[in-house]
């Protein structure tokens, strides 16, 4: 009898999860607490960009990817998905039509404010998933700067896991050089053929070159213009060699990897615990330092009042104490 009741309870919880929309914008306010509970206060922030993807793939390709990954993964492991977010680093494509590039300070402040607002709505775990190749350095640094002040939430940055079985499948299916397949090439075009084939114009994939022009070569040096120097068409690879079958392999691996990551993040209690421990020590050291300064100033004042220090000696010692 007890086993049967437990089974019925599990089925009821499963059905509730299935009926509860994962998208933030599709939830109703009366279900908000259920979504928080079912997700273990976990929210996905799907980040893409608006940019040219060769002459053949949609401008919102990165958004399509993160949207589909999140939708499919949350059917396996429930979490709330924030609406499509397309504010990131895309300065190198500003010469191409359709690019939406905001000033750097706006990009940074908007991302920080968005995470703060997501947390204000009850989410303690924010999982960034990224579909744009120009974002990882920005996002990794953003995540690291979460330690600049105490917060009541943690930010996680998801990166798909690629094992040997996956790599073997990819090698067997790939038709182009992986070193040159960097943007709107075989990889990205294949996933789009699998996810949204009606948006891909394969007959246009060869009307522009995706070759590396190698117009700038300075050893061991990074410059902002490197991408434009190599790929002025904002196209890197051979999109015409894409197949939906290859795209399915890539997509299935990413979705499964994300679902596993979500399960682990939802069960994670250590990150916030350690984050709080870290800030307790940071703030404790600052408090101790400030107390030490105050004690020194009080001692110097007493020495001035007793005549042990002249006014000039007191001011000099005070400046030194404050500087330290």
Give an overview of the whole structure.
By secondary structure, this protein is mainly α. It folds into two domains: 21-268, 3-Layer(aba) Sandwich (Rossmann fold); 276-323, no CATH class. The chain is built from eleven helices and four strands, in the order ααβαβαβαβαααααα. The chain has helices spanning 2-19, 32-38, 61-76, 104-120, 136-144, 164-173, 186-195, 226-230, 244-267, 270-306, 311-323; strands at 42-47, 80-81, 125-130, 154-157. A four-stranded parallel β-sheet has the order 2-1-3-4, with helices on both faces. α3 links the parallel β1 and β2. The radius of gyration is 26 Å and the shape is globular. The relative contact order is 0.13.
Count of discrete alpha- or pi-helical segments spanning 4 or more residues: 11
Structural class: mainly alpha
- List unreliable stretches of 5+ residues: 8-12
Reported by name, the CATH topology of the largest domain is Rossmann fold
Total domain count = 2
Broad CATH class of the largest domain: Alpha Beta
Level of helix content?
A: 40-55%
Gross morphology is globular
Strand % is 5-15%
**Biggest sheet overview:** 4 strands, parallel
Radius of gyration (Å): 26 Å
Give helix and strand order, one letter per element, not per position. Answer: HHEHEHEHEHHHHHH
Q: Based on DSSP secondary structure assignment, what is the total number of beta strands? A: 4
Q: Please, what is the CATH homologous superfamily of the largest domain? A: Creatininase
> How far apart lie the N and C ends?
71 Å
């Amino acid at each position: 009898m007890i086993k049967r009741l437990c089974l019925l309870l599990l089925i009821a919880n499963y059905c509730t999860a299935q009926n509860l929309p994962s998208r933030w914008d599709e939830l109703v306010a009366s279900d908000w607490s259920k979504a928080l509970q079912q997700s273990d206060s976990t929210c996905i922030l799907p980040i893409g960009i608006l940019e040219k993807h060769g002459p053949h793939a949609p401008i919102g390709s990165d958004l399509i990817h993160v949207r589909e990954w999140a939708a499919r993964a949350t059917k396996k492991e429930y979490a709330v998905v924030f609406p499509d977010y397309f504010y990131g680093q895309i300065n190198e494509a500003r010469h191409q039509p359709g690019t939406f590039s905001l000033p750097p300070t706006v990009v940074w402040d908007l991302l920080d404010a968005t995470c703060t607002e997501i947390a204000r709505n009850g989410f303690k775990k924010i999982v960034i998933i990224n579909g744009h190749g120009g974002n990882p350095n920005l996002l990794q640094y953003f995540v690291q700067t979460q330690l600049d002040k105490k917060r009541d939430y943690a930010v996680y940055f998801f990166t798909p896991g690629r094992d040997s079985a996956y790599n073997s499948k990819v090698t067997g299916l790939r038709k182009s050089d992986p070193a040159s397949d960097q943007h709107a090439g075989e990889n990205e075009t294949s996933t789009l053929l699998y996810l949204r084939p009606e948006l891909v114009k394969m007959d246009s994939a060869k009307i522009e070159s995706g070759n590396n022009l190698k117009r700038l070569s300075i050893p061991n040096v990074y410059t902002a213009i490197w991408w434009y120097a190599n790929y002025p068409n904002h196209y890197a690879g051979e999109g015409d060699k894409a197949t939906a079958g290859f795209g399915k392999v890539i997509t299935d691996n990413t979705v499964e990897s994300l679902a596993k990551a979500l399960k682990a993040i939802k069960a994670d209690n250590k990150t916030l615990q350690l984050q709080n421990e870290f800030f307790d020590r940071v703030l404790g050291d600052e408090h101790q330092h400030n107390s030490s300064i105050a004690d020194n100033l009080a001692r110097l004042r007493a020495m001035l009042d007793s005549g042990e220090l002249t006014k000039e000696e007191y001011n000099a010692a005070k400046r030194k104490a404050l500087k330290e």
